[in-house]
Amino acid sequence: MAVVNKLFGLALMYLLFVLSCVCSEDVCVKKTPCMCVFPNGTGVDLTPVSGSSFYTAVYFVHKNKDTANAEYTFFTYYFHPCSNLLTNRTNLPDDTCDMPLSLYRVFSVMKLDTTSKDNATYKLSQTTCNYLGKSEMMLFKEDGKALIYENLPSNTTVQLSCAQGVDQLHVTSVDEPNNIILTFYSSQACLKQIEPEGSGRSFGSTLLIIFFSFVIFYLVLGVCTKKFLMGATGLEVIPNLGFWTDLPHLVRDGWAFAINGFKLPSRGVGSPAASDPNSYDSI
């Protein structure tokens, strides 16, 4: 009985898994680092904005204002969709940008030069380049509205905003250092038809998947019941064996009936069925 319960549980889990996959919401599947496509053929394609230079966005903080320790901290983000580009950075000791990247950040600190006469001059005191992501490690969000660059334990999200005009990168949120959010405004971020309509899974395919999932569930449950509860062996473990044996003949008769214009075949004179009071024609 314990074996039956385990097998039944596995069959039920399989059925639920298949149904959840079939009935789940559409997901924008990554085809290339530039493109993701929904089952209906629509999607996002950033290929036209993949040029030869980075898109940049700057965020800065002014610390210790109106004091001798005043300084500006600049965070400059560089983003290139679709592929990695060389950063053209001098490889400083703390840099992690010594490779082609799709997303990186330059951290700069400018401190007040107290030796200047007007006390309004700032000098660069520190600059560091930080690796944020490569195109091959990028993931599309399920709704196709963002790119996620994972750099565990942190990640950077580039939201895709459908907008007309000049393509621009903006800093949206740096409140959580391990979850930076940028926004890329572009007309190429708009949803468009990429593949022919209907190239995805059709409604009929979905019904067939559900149907065969139920058939498999029915067979597994029936075999377990007949084998472990009823002691059946061999072909007898198949539930409703008589029906499955007759199924090919039933299908053949059904086709013949349909081809014949949904009319019963004519019976010969004096046939045993004609004189049988229990035959279909007599009734």
Q: How many whole angstroms does the radius of gyration measure?
A: 34 Å
Number of strands: 13
**What fold name stands as the CATH topology of the largest domain?**
Cation-dependent Mannose-6-phosphate Receptor, Chain A
Shape: elongated
For the record, the CATH architecture of the largest domain stands as Distorted Sandwich
CATH class of the largest domain: Mainly Beta
Structural class: alpha+beta
For the sheet with most strands, the description reads: 5 strands, mixed
**Total tally of structural domains:** 2
CATH-defined superfamily of the largest domain: Mannose-6-phosphate receptor binding domain
Q: What is the spatial order of strands in the main beta sheet?
A: 8-9-10-12-11
Provide the β-strand percentage band.
25-35%
Average pLDDT taken over every residue? 81
The DSSP helix count reads 4
Low-confidence stretches: none
Kindly report how far apart the N and C termini lie: 48 Å
Helical fraction equals 25-40%
Topology pattern, helix = H, strand = E: HEEEEEEEEEEEEEHHH
Using brief descriptors, characterize the structure shown:
4 helices; single chain; 25% helix; Cation-dependent Mannose-6-phosphate Receptor, Chain A; Autophagy-rel_prot_27; 4-stranded antiparallel sheet; 5-stranded mixed sheet; 13 strands; 30% strand; 2 domains; 283 residues
